[in-house]
Amino acid sequence: MKITSKSKVAIKCLIILGAEDKRLSVREIAEKDDLSVRYLEQIIASLKKHGMVDSVKGASGGYAIIGSTDQISVYDVVVAIDGDHSFSEALETVLDELVFKPLDESIKEHLSSIKLSKLIEAYKLKTNSEYMYYI
Q: Is 91 left (phi over 0), alpha (psi -120 to 50) or beta?
């Protein structure tokens, strides 16, 4: 399983979109996590191509997640951005069979179990607690 920085940015982007109650422009998303607008545009284009976000043009337009965040896993995002590559593609050796194939399966299982909704919830808790003041 190949997980690149592009996948990580895509996950951050979806978390930010999911945490908002409105559509966001690429610039607004970029500002929330100090991301490059150009880089983010490429990632959002991939997310849109894979049916994870949609866009609306105009003054109240922007990007939003399609469907339920309970149905989107981290694995889904990684595959959409980086493809479904594995460590054990050829399975040519005992090492591939005994080490890399089980590793691929473990990573896939773990990433599939993490739903976007859970990450959004954790993000909201973290960002809300940063602005909480106690007297």
A: left
pLDDT in tens, 2-20: 789 999 999 999 999 999 9
100 phi, psi to nearest 5 deg = -80, -35
Task: Looking at mean pLDDT, say which of 88-92, 96-100, 118-122 comes out highest.
Answer: 118-122
Of the chain, the end-to-end C-alpha distance in Å amounts to: 48
- Which of 75, 56, 83, 59 minimizes the C-alpha distance to 14? 75
Domains of the chain, CATH where assigned: 5-129 (1.10.10.10)
Strand partners, 64: 54
User: Residues 112-128: what's their mean pLDDT?
Assistant: 93
How far does Cα 54 stand from its chain's mean position? 15
Angle at 53 between CA 63 and CA 21, to 5 degrees: 50
Contacts within 8 Å (CB) and 24+ apart, 60-63: 60/23, 61/23, 61/25, 62/22, 62/23, 62/24, 62/25, 62/28, 63/17, 63/23, 63/24, 63/25, 63/26, 63/29
Tokens of 19: 């945490």
